[in-house]
């Protein structure tokens, strides 16, 4: 995906938003330990920068600056610089043509300037605070954090994408409105009406009248101003915003997957550096394979594909008996009630039948122990950038706001239906039965046929945990 330009990314996003197999694979890539830790590190850097800027600004105003908060700003700036270096190595010369890249550079520059100003105040407490610098830096870092969230959570992608669409739709309206307002300012200034002694005071008066127009003696000029500026233009802007927001709602999913594709593209270079996956280590592999913790599920074991499970051994280790797709679904259906259900089934098959009370207590205690361990892993992951999060927990976080397309009917043919592959050599390929998307640094092959063959009725779910109740 390295080097994909914006039009190609948009076309691919259109394909992926209707292809469950591609969604599953992209979420799987971003929930990989290395990629997820980088996403979490950027989140921590943004939060750290905002907190350090606010607390440091308070010290600047009071003249009691310490080295803690400017140092934290430098730390966040370092993380952002590493992110920019990763983007440069991933997209190459295309980095220069990305407007957002320049915005990030400006944001980093102002963060370092703000940190430098705070360090200077330590040596000279009487130094006058640079309010404009602090204010502009605060605006830049907040906007950067918002744009970070757009590629992480679908509701943020919808909101931020909607704002961008509205801004583009309002541009012609703003130009025409300013020209009309300028015409009225000139007429009021020439007639000397009201407080229009000078062009500056007239401009200030007319701009305030837009939001608080209460004329004492209404003449034809006031009537025209009220009709054109206040009634017509303000109703037009409401209509434009409403229409643009409706379009944004329709395009929200497409925008979200476009942002995610951009994020995946940024990380592709890491595959050349880190050849072996962190899950190759036994401990991390066990953490990734840790089952989700749930008290109960809405799963009915007589429905496919769950009716393929006929004994507790298949329930405990489904990957030994079924393909990866079915095994993932069965693991996602595990819960305390399911454990008790299959233990009872196993007990009935033995002489004497029935599940002993001691066995039930042992299952409940073991489930509680897994709950404690799961909470411990999540807590440890919170302070390590998600490094110790179980794989299903990382996938759940990366799937927030994403609707799955889970069908109740599941046949053997559909079990092998989705086998998407997104490789590290800048291509996305999905088998012809459901989605075929070839992405190369020089473009997308047969995008029209990809759109036609992409099956949006895929039975694969994005997050196997989404069908359970009481999950941790």
Describe the structure.
Helix 1 packs across helix 9 (220-267) and helix 6 (131-150) packs across helix 7 (154-191). The longest helix is centred in the middle third of the chain and has 48 residues, at 220-267. This protein has 3 domains: 35-150; 158-271, no CATH class; 278-471, no CATH class. Helices cover 64% and strands 4% of the residues. Residues 404-472 have low confidence and may be disordered. The chain has 472 residues and is mainly alpha-helical. The protein is elongated. The strands form 3 sheets. The protein has a two-stranded antiparallel ribbon with strand order 1-6. A two-stranded antiparallel ribbon has the order 2-3. The chain has a two-stranded antiparallel sheet with strand order 4-5. It starts with 5 loop residues before the first helix and ends with a strand.
**Number of helical segments with 4 or more residues:** 18
Largest pleated sheet: 2 strands, antiparallel
Whole-number mean pLDDT: 77
- Spatial order of strands in the largest sheet: 1-6
Rg, alpha carbons: 29 Å
Going by helix content, strand content and strand pairing, the class is mainly alpha
What does this entry show, briefly?
The protein is built from 18 helices and six strands. The protein has helices at 6-16, 20-30, 33-62, 68-91, 99-123, 131-150, 154-191, 199-211, 220-267, 270-273, 282-288, 312-316, 324-332, 336-348, 357-382, 391-398, 412-415, 447-453, and strands spanning 294-297, 421-423, 427-429, 438-440, 443-445, 468-471.
């Amino acid at each position: 995906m390295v080097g994909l330009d914006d039009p190609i990314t948009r076309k691919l996003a259109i394909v992926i938003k209707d292809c469950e197999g591609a969604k599953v694979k992209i979420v799987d890539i971003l929930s990989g330990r290395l990629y997820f830790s980088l996403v979490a590190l950027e989140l921590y850097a943004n939060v750290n920068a905002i907190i350090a800027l606010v607390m440091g600004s308070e010290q600047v105003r009071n003249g009691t600056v310490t080295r803690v908060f400017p140092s934290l700003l430098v730390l966040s700036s370092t993380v952002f610089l590493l992110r920019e270096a990763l983007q440069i190595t991933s997209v190459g010369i295309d980095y220069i043509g990305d407007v957002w890249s320049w915005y990030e550079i400006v944001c980093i520059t102002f963060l370092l300037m703000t940190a430098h100003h705070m360090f200077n105040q330590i040596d000279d407490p009487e130094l006058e605070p640079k309010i404009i610098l602090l204010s502009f830096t605060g605006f830049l870092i907040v906007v950067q954090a918002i744009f970070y969230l757009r590629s992480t959570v679908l509701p943020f992608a919808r909101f931020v994408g909607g704002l961008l669409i509205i801004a583009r739709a309002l541009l012609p309206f703003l130009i025409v409105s300013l020209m009309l307002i300028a015409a009225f300012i000139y007429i009021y200034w020439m007639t000397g009406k009201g407080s229009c002694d000078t062009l500056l005071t007239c401009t200030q008066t007319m701009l305030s009248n837009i939001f608080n127009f209460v004329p004492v003696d209404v003449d034809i000029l006031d009537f025209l101003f009220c009709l054109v500026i206040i009634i017509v233009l303000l109703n037009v802007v409401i209509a434009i915003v409403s229409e643009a927001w409706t379009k944004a709602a329709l395009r929200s999913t497409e925008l979200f997957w476009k942002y995610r594709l951009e994020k995946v593209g940024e990380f592709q270079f890491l595959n050349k550096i880190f050849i072996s996956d962190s899950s190759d280590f036994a401990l991390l592999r066990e953490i990734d394979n840790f089952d989700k913790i749930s008290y109960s599920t809405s799963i009915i074991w007589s429905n496919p594909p769950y009716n393929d499970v006929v004994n507790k051994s298949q329930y405990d280790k489904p990957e030994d008996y079924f393909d990866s797709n079915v095994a993932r679904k069965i693991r996602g259906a595990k819960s305390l009630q399911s454990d008790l259900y299959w233990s009872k089934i196993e007990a009935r098959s033995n002489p004497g039948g029935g599940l002993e009370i001691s066995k039930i207590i042992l299952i409940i205690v073991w489930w509680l122990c897994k709950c404690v361990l799961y909470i411990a892993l999540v807590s440890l992951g919170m302070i390590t950038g998600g490094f110790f999060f179980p794989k299903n927990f990382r996938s759940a976080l990366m799937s927030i706001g994403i609707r799955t397309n889970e069908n109740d009917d599941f046949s053997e043919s559909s079990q092998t239906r989705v086998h998407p592959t997104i490789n590290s050599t800048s291509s996305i390929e999905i088998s012809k039965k459901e989605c075929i998307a070839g992405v190369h640094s020089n473009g997308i092959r047969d995008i029209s046929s990809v759109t036609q063959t992409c099956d949006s009725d895929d039975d694969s779910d994005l997050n196997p945990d989404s069908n359970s109740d009481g999950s941790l």
